[in-house]
């Protein structure tokens, strides 16, 4: 019976060490992926700006992801305020509006605006210039989706943005494969310090070391209770 229990403890310890080691390496790999993505983004951002008409006409926009682009056009409607979005650790809105350009229309993530948490229905003071505007932006995926009920997708304040539905609302030939993030200094009531893809790698490293520390703790406890403690008890005077 004692031998069987010892084998069960050994198997449990080995399984625990294996799982926590694997989870640590997985978190380490996630950190490396984020750093590689950030490096690729920085390399693409240094390339000359691409023509938005070329992007709109391309069957696959993957080669253009994270490239800079200059756009010239007029702002359309509606303007959507995506809730629960963070910039520099603060929670507020990502402001998205369609921009009609030569060759089509693009959803522009214009920037971030703070939220009034005392009057949650109040929209921030964001101005939209009339007439033709010129902006510099970065080609990016659509805003990340957060959990929301279907009825939360109406009105100016929303949790998520479906580009196909957004294009129908705007009555413009909106591109649905990508959006762009407007670059430049703060203006029009908006901040544009967009989070980088590599941000958070430190968090993954921290998780990795936590899993490895847990693996080491399991190994130490196993050795202590299975070998060191019984050996000391056997040598103790009776």
Automatic annotation (TrEMBL):
<keyword id="KW-0812">Transmembrane</keyword>
<keyword id="KW-1133">Transmembrane helix</keyword>
<keyword id="KW-1003">Cell membrane</keyword>
<dbReference type="InterPro" id="IPR002994">
    <property type="entry name" value="Surf1/Shy1"/>
</dbReference>
<dbReference type="GO" id="GO:0005886">
    <property type="term" value="C:plasma membrane"/>
</dbReference>
<feature type="transmembrane region" description="Helical">
    <location>
        <begin position="209"/>
        <end position="228"/>
    </location>
</feature>
<protein>
    <recommendedName>
        <fullName>SURF1-like protein</fullName>
    </recommendedName>
</protein>
<comment type="similarity">
    <text>Belongs to the SURF1 family.</text>
</comment>
<dbReference type="Pfam" id="PF02104">
    <property type="entry name" value="SURF1"/>
</dbReference>
<dbReference type="InterPro" id="IPR045214">
    <property type="entry name" value="Surf1/Surf4"/>
</dbReference>
<keyword id="KW-0472">Membrane</keyword>
């Amino acid at each position: 019976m004692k031998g069987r229990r010892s084998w069960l403890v050994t198997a449990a310890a080995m399984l625990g060490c294996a799982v926590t080691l694997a989870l640590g390496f997985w978190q380490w790999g996630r950190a490396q992926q984020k750093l590689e993505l950030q490096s690729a983004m920085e390399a693409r951002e240094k390339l000359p700006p691409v023509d938005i008409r070329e992007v709109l006409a391309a069957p696959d926009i993957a080669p253009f992801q994270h490239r800079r682009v200059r756009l010239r056009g007029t702002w359309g409607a509606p303007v959507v305020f995506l809730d629960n979005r963070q910039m520099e650790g603060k929670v507020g809105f990502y402001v998205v509006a369609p921009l009609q350009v030569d060759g089509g229309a693009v959803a522009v993530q214009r920037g971030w605006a703070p939220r009034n948490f005392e009057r949650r229905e109040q929209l921030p003071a964001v101005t939209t210039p009339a007439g033709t505007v010129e902006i510099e932006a970065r080609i990016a995926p659509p805003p990340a989706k957060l959990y929301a009920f279907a009825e939360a997708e109406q009105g100016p304040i929303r949790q998520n943005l479906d580009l196909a539905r957004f294009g129908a609302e705007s009555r413009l030939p909106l591109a649905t494969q990508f959006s762009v993030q407007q670059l430049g200094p703060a203006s029009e009531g908006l901040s544009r310090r967009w989070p980088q893809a590599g941000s958070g790698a430190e968090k993954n490293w921290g998780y990795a070391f936590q899993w490895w520390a847990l693996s080491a703790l399991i190994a130490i406890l196993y050795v202590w209770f299975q070998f060191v403690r019984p050996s000391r008890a056997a040598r103790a005077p009776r």
